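Dear colleague,

As promised, here are the two records you asked about, laid out in our usual form so they can be pasted straight into your sheet.

NAME FIELD: protein one
SEQUENCE, THEN STRUCTURE:
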Amino acid sequence: MSKTLLHLDSSILGDHSVSRQVSAAIVARLTAADPSLAVVYRDLAADPLPHATPASMPADHPLSGGKGDAASQQALDEFLAADIVVVGAPMYNFSVPTQLRAWIDRILVPGKTFAYGAGGAVEGLAKGKRVIVALARGGSYADPSFAAVAEHAETYLRWVFGFIGIEPEFIIAEGIAAGRREAALEAALKDAAALKAA
């Protein structure tokens, strides 16, 4: 049975986006290695999910009262069905785009992707999925003290996916707005081409 790859982009910059170019290169690498991969694509900037309200949650979310929003339920179902998830994630104002955050609000669902056990311990229910993030940052975060206070994209995504049982992989292009765009993109594309197969 063929595996499913869910490809998400969230940059608002269209063809000028570094994260979109890198996420596309990741998908190209994985599908070249396994042509049987079924790819589902979602452009979160072109077709955004609304900000979270109880009525806009998936029907599977307790807040929805069992009603929920069809598009939100589809987003959750796509994630649950995927074996591999590739996320194009630019850093905007030190965090992830609101479009990506809205999608994350749809996949963090009690009883579906995480559960609280005895004593309040969290169990991630999405174990076994492979998540690869193409992260683009305008500045450089090599200084750990600066990164600790200013970097809220990679750290956030590591935590979010870890919360539901997944250890994400990252391919990072940084310094894009600081005169390193071409070098950063070239290095990230090289990393994408060297990615291990699915």
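NAME FIELD: protein two
SEQUENCE, THEN STRUCTURE:
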Amino acid sequence: MNTKSRDALIPYLTVDGAARAIDFYKAAFGAEELARMPAEDGKRLMHAHLRVNGHDLMLSDAFPEYGAPTAAPAAVTLHLAVDDADAWWNRAVEAGAEIAMALEDQFWGDRYGQLRDPFGHRWSIGSPSRK
């Protein structure tokens, strides 16, 4: 694990199609791939380590034979606090993210919206409003 510190909380996603997810996260969120470990079956990824917006994100394909979860969580949102919500939003939508909540200036002072990636995970993007 290539984290800067042992004191961290790192989201770990289980997806159906981890290699495709890595490609999507690179296109949508500018992810940098740090590590990729193929499974013995040659079809799935046992583990991958990405860096998104300067922070770690790990993922793998589903491995039900090891008791790993197989479905995307419905109650989890990954939040990206960024410098320019519009730029990040547009890149993600162009890469294929589905709009779940439109990007708008919110009452709390942020420009904020939510997207759903092709693998079932929800992402929010926010930055201070420019108004």
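A couple of things worth noting about protein two: The longest strand covers residues 45-52. The beta strands are 12-15, 32-38, 45-52, 55-61, 77-81, 98-105, 110-116, 122-128.

Best,
R.
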